[in-house]
Automatic annotation (TrEMBL), chain A:
Keywords: Oxidoreductase. It comes from Datura stramonium (Jimsonweed). This is Dehydrogenase E1 component domain-containing protein. Gene3D superfamilies: 3.40.50.970. Pfam families: E1_dh (PF00676).
TrEMBL record, chain B:
Its cofactor is thiamine diphosphate. This is 3-methyl-2-oxobutanoate dehydrogenase (2-methylpropanoyl-transferring). Keywords: Oxidoreductase. Gene3D superfamilies: 3.40.50.920, 3.40.50.970. Residues 44-219 form the Transketolase-like pyrimidine-binding domain. It comes from Datura stramonium.
C-alpha cells in the first residue's frame, strides 16, 4: 500500500475563486497550451455555471426575496432550454493512440503507479476472461465481467486511499482487486464455499470486504446511493480524512434512489464521490431510451453538486478526475459527481446475449481499438516503461494464478447448514431454531433430496 | 371512543408483567431493569414518553442521531421537541421529503456503527422506503456474512386510525413488514411501554420498525418512570388473565379489546388479553400457553383482515393447539377496503364487533 502514502502528497489543491468562475472565458483561459506538461489536474477545475442570457440582464437587476433566497427578476418570458447548445465536453488526457492531448492537464503518475495500474487492469481482464469461461463450462452458476471498464475500475481505485469507503454496484471488482482482495478471495465467493465471507448466501460476484472498506454488493440497483450519503455523514461527524465513493451505472440514474442519494448528499454536505459508469447500456436498453438529458454529469448542478464528465477509457483522465474529486469532497465536505463515459463491451452477464440488441461491429471496435488497456499500454510503452516481453510474462503469470485459484476454491467444501440460519438477526430466534430442527429431521428422512456437499 | 377510555390504558400498563425467562431472542434481556422498581415517575402522554426516550437515547450514546421530515422543530406530532436545541442540528435534523432517502441514509449511517433513529412522518408514507427496508436493511447482515450490519437502525412511524384520517393518515401496514426476515416489528400500547420498548428497539443490534399508535399520542396518559429503562422485545405480556378465551392484539387496538373483555366479564365470560408488543420475531409460546388454557383464540387488528398478521397468529396457533381448540379462531379486523373516511366507524374492529365474536366463539 505504499502507493497510497505516496500519492497522498500529490495534490496541493487549488480552487479558483468564485469570482473567477463567473468569467465565461475561464474555460479557454485554463486550457493554456502546455504541451506534454503534466501538472496537477486540480488546477484546471472549471465550474460550469448557469450561463443563459439571464446573466446579461445583471447589473441593475431587481430581485425578489423568496424563502430560498433572493431571485433576480426579468421582464422577458424565457424558458430554460431542455438542452444546452453544445454537449458537455469530456475530460481527456490520452488520445486513442495513447499520446497526451496537447495542453492537457493531469495528475502526475509515477512509473511505479502506472505499471501497477496497468498490471491490475490486465489482471482484471484476465480474471474476467477465465471466470467467464468457467461459467460457460458450467463450473460457475453465474458471472458478470467488467470488460471495457477496466480503467474506471482501476484508475478510480488508485486515486483513493484505503480509508475511503466504497459502496459498489456490481461492475467494480477491480476496485477490490486494487485494494488487495486476493484471487482466492474472489474464487471463494464465486464458488460459494465455506471460505466465502458471504457464507454462500449470494450469487457469484456479490463480493464484500469489511477489511478493505468495500461494502457487500447487493443486486438491487441504486440502493447504495442514499446509503452512501449516510456513510459519508458518519465520516463527516467523525472528522475523518476520508470520503465515500459510490459506483453506479447509467441505468441506475433512472431510479428514485439516484435522486434521493444526490439530494441527501448535497443537503447534508456529505463527502461522497458519485461515480457513474455511463457505459451506454442497461442490459438491452440504450441510454437514448433511458433519459433525454445530455447524460449524467449535467444533472449534478440541479442538485447543487459539482460535476465532471470524463473519458472513462482514459486511465490518466479517470485517475486525475477522481483525485481532484476526492480532494474537493474531503476538503470542502461536499459531494462530487463524476460521469465516466465508457462502453459495456461484455454482455450484461452470462445470462445475456447482447448481440441480440447491439451491432457486433460496434462491440468489437470497443473491445479492441477503443480498449482502455490498449490505450494505456501505448502510453507506458512509449515512456519506455513496458515492453512486449513484460506483457507476455504478466499475462502468463496471472492466467496461471487465476486457474490455480479456481482449482483450489472448487475443492473447498460448502458452508455448513447452520450458516443458513445465522446472521438473519444477531442471534438465532426461536422460530429459526425450530425451523432448523425441522430441516434436520427432514434431511434424515430424505437425505437424497439435499445437496450432499453441504456439511450438516 | 372518548378520552376516558384511553386513560384506561394506564391501568392496563400497570399490570405487572410476568417474569419471563429469556427465549433466546436477541433482545438484551440482561440489561433490562424492572420498571416497577424505578422512581420517580411522572404522568405523561405517549408523545412525551417517546420524546423522553429520544432524549435518553441521544444523551446516552453520542453516536446516535434523530432525523426525518420536520423533526427539527419538534415534529408534526411533537415527538422530537427540544432535541435539536439540546443536541444540536448535526445530530437532530430535518431531511428532504423523501422516504427512500431517509431510510437509505439511515442504513448507511447505521452501518458505520451509529444509532440511526429515522422518522417516517406517517406509516401510510413508508412505502417509497419499502425497498430500502426489505432488500437492504433486512438483508444487510445476512448477505455480508456478518461483515456489515445496520443493527443500529430504528424506523419510527405513527400508524392507525384517528377518526378523520381517510386513506392516507390511518393505515396499519405492519403485516407487510412481518413478512421480512431480518427486521423486528414493535408496536407499543401505552406511554410507559412506548418509552421502554423504543429504548430497547434503538439499542437492539437489529433493524427495527417501530409503529407508534398516533391516536394515543395525546390521549393515553400514564405514570412513566423518568429514568432510562428498557422493556424486552419478542416478549408478549398477559394484560388480563382469564379462562374462557384468549384475545391477542397490539398497539391502540388493545384498549378496544380491553373494553370488550370488561363487557364480556359482565356476562360471565372470562377473557385473557395478550399484548404481543413485538410482531416479529413474535412470542408464540405465551400465546400458545394461553390458548392451551382457554381453548379459544380471537385476534384483532385495524389492518385489513386478509393477509393481516392475525392470519399468521391464527395459523401458528392452529398448528400448535389444534386438539385444544374448542372453536374456530376468530379474527376481528379492518375490512378489505382501502381505509375509508366517512365509513371509518363501519370499517373499524370496534368493541361490539369484538364482543359479538367473543360470545359466538365461546358459544360455538
Amino acid at each position: 500500500m505504499e502507493m497510497f502514502a505516496k500519492s497522498r502528497n500529490l495534490i496541493p489543491f487549488l480552487l479558483r475563486s468564485r469570482k473567477c468562475c463567473y468569467n465565461t472565458n475561464s474555460t479557454a483561459a485554463i486550457f493554456i497550451q502546455r504541451r506534454f506538461d503534466s501538472v496537477k489536474a486540480g488546477e484546471q477545475l472549471d465550474l460550469y455555471n448557469y450561463r443563459e442570457d439571464f446573466d446579461r440582464d445583471d447589473q441593475h437587476q431587481q430581485t425578489l426575496n423568496f424563502p430560498g433566497g433572493r431571485v433576480p427578476i426579468t421582464p422577458r418570458m424565457k424558458f430554460i432550454s431542455e438542452l444546452s447548445e453544445k454537449r458537455l465536453p469530456c475530460y481527456r488526457v490520452l488520445d486513442d493512440d495513447g499520446y497526451l492531448i496537447p495542453g492537457t492537464i493531469f495528475e502526475q503518475v509515477s512509473k511505479e503507479l502506472a505499471l501497477n495500474m496497468y498490471s491490475t487492469m490486465v489482471a482484471l481482464q484476465t480474471m474476467d476472461t477465465i471466470f467467464y469461461e468457467a461459467q460457460r463450462q458450467g463450473r460457475l452458476s453465474f458471472y458478470l465481467t467488467s470488460t471495457g471498464e477496466e480503467a474506471i475500475n482501476i484508475a478510480s481505485a488508485a486515486a483513493l486511499t484505503l480509508d475511503d469507503i466504497v459502496l459498489p454496484q456490481y461492475r467494480e471488482p477491480g476496485v477490490l482487486l486494487w485494494r488487495g482482495f486476493t484471487l482466492e478471495e474472489f474464487t471463494d465467493q464465486l464458488f460459494g464455499n465455506k471460505a466465502d465471507y458471504g457464507k454462500g448466501r449470494q450469487m457469484p460476484i456479490h463480493y464484500g470486504s469489511n477489511k478493505l472498506n468495500y461494502f457487500t454488493v447487493s443486486s438491487p440497483l441504486t440502493t447504495q446511493l442514499p446509503q452512501a450519503a449516510g456513510v459519508a455523514y458518519s465520516l463527516k461527524m467523525d472528522k475523518k480524512e476520508a470520503c465515500v465513493v459510490v459506483y453506479f451505472g447509467d441505468g441506475s440514474t433512472s431510479e428514485g434512489d439516484f435522486h434521493a442519494g444526490l439530494n441527501f448528499a448535497a443537503v447534508m454536505e456529505a463527502p461522497v464521490i458519485f461515480l457513474c459508469r455511463n457505459n451506454g447500456w442497461a442490459i438491452s436498453t440504450p441510454v437514448t431510451e433511458q433519459f433525454r438529458s445530455d447524460g449524467i454529469a449535467i444533472k449534478g448542478q440541479a442538485y447543487g453538486i459539482r460535476s465532471i464528465r470524463v473519458d472513462g477509457n482514459d486511465v490518466l483522465a479517470v485517475y486525475s478526475a477522481v483525485r481532484a474529486a476526492r480532494q474537493m469532497a474531503i476538503k470542502e465536505q461536499k459531494p462530487i459527481l463524476v460521469e465516466a463515459m465508457t462502453y459495456r463491451v461484455s454482455h450484461h452477464s452470462t445470462s445475456d446475449d447482447s448481440t441480440k440488441y447491439r451491432c457486433v461491429k460496434e462491440i468489437e471496435q470497443w473491445r479492441t481499438e477503443k480498449s482502455p488497456i490498449t490505450r494505456f499500454r501505448k502510453w507506458i510503452q512509449r515512456n519506455g516503461w513496458w515492453a512486449d516481453q513484460n506483457e507476455t510474462e504478466l499475462r502468463g503469470n496471472i492466467r496461471k494464478q487465476v486457474l490455480e485459484a479456481i482449482q483450489a476454491a472448487e475443492k473447498v467444501e460448502k458452508p455448513p447448514l447452520t450458516d443458513l440460519f445465522g446472521d438473519v438477526y444477531d442471534k438465532v430466534p426461536s422460530n429459526l431454531q425450530e425451523q432448523e430442527r425441522f430441516i434436520r429431521d427432514t434431511i434424515k428422512r430424505h437425505p437424497k433430496e439435499y445437496p450432499s456437499d453441504v456439511p450438516l | 371512543m372518548g378520552g376516558s377510555s384511553f386513560r384506561r390504558i394506564g391501568k392496563l400498563a400497570s399490570i405487572s408483567s410476568k417474569n419471563q425467562s429469556c427465549r433466546g431472542f436477541s433482545s438484551t434481556v440482561e440489561t433490562l431493569k424492572k420498571t416497577d422498581q424505578l422512581t420517580p415517575t411522572k404522568s405523561v402522554n405517549l408523545f412525551s414518553a417517546i420524546n423522553q426516550a429520544l432524549h435518553i437515547a441521544l444523551d446516552s450514546d453520542p453516536r446516535s442521531y434523530v432525523f426525518g421530515e420536520d423533526v427539527g422543530f419538534g415534529g408534526v406530532f411533537r415527538c422530537t421537541t427540544g432535541l435539536a436545541d439540546r443536541f444540536g442540528k448535526q445530530r437532530v435534523f430535518n431531511t428532504p421529503l423523501c422516504e427512500q432517502g431517509i431510510v437509505g441514509f439511515a442504513i448507511g449511517l447505521a452501518a458505520m456503527d451509529n444509532r440511526a433513529i429515522a422518522e417516517i412522518q406517517f406509516a401510510d408514507y413508508i412505502f417509497p422506503a419499502f425497498d430500502q427496508i426489505v432488500n437492504e436493511a433486512a438483508k444487510f447482515r445476512y448477505r455480508s456474512g456478518n461483515q456489515f450490519n445496520c443493527g443500529g437502525l430504528t424506523i419510527r412511524t405513527p400508524y392507525g386510525a384517528v377518526g378523520h384520517g381517510g386513506h392516507y393518515h390511518s393505515q396499519s401496514p405492519e403485516s407487510f413488514f412481518c413478512h421480512v426476515p431480518g427486521i423486528k416489528v414493535v408496536i407499543p400500547r401505552s406511554p410507559r411501554q412506548a418509552k421502554g420498548l423504543l429504548l430497547s428497539s434503538i439499542r437492539d443490534p437489529n433493524p427495527v420498525v417501530f409503529f407508534e399508535p398516533k391516536l394515543l399520542y395525546r390521549m393515553a396518559v400514564e405514570e412513566v418512570p423518568e429514568d432510562d429503562y428498557m422493556l424486552p422485545l419478542s416478549e408478549a405480556e398477559v394484560l388480563r388473565e382469564g379462562t374462557d378465551i384468549t384475545l391477542v392484539g397490539w398497539g391502540a387496538q388493545l384498549s378496544i379489546m380491553e373494553q370488550a373483555c370488561a363487557e364480556a366479564a359482565k356476562e360471565g365470560i372470562s377473557c385473557e388479553l395478550i399484548d404481543l408488543k413485538t410482531l416479529i420475531p413474535w412470542d408464540k409460546e405465551t400465546v400458545e400457553a394461553s390458548v392451551k388454557k382457554t381453548g379459544r383464540l380471537l385476534i384483532s387488528h385495524e389492518a385489513p383482515v386478509t393477509g393481516g398478521f392475525g392470519a399468521e397468529i391464527s395459523a401458528s396457533i392452529v398448528e400448535r393447539c389444534f386438539t385444544r381448540l374448542e372453536a374456530p379462531v376468530a379474527r376481528v379486523c379492518g375490512l378489505d377496503t382501502p381505509f375509508p373516511l366517512v365509513f371509518e366507524p363501519f370499517y373499524l374492529p370496534t368493541k361490539n364487533k369484538i364482543l359479538d365474536a367473543i360470545k359466538s366463539t365461546v358459544n360455538y
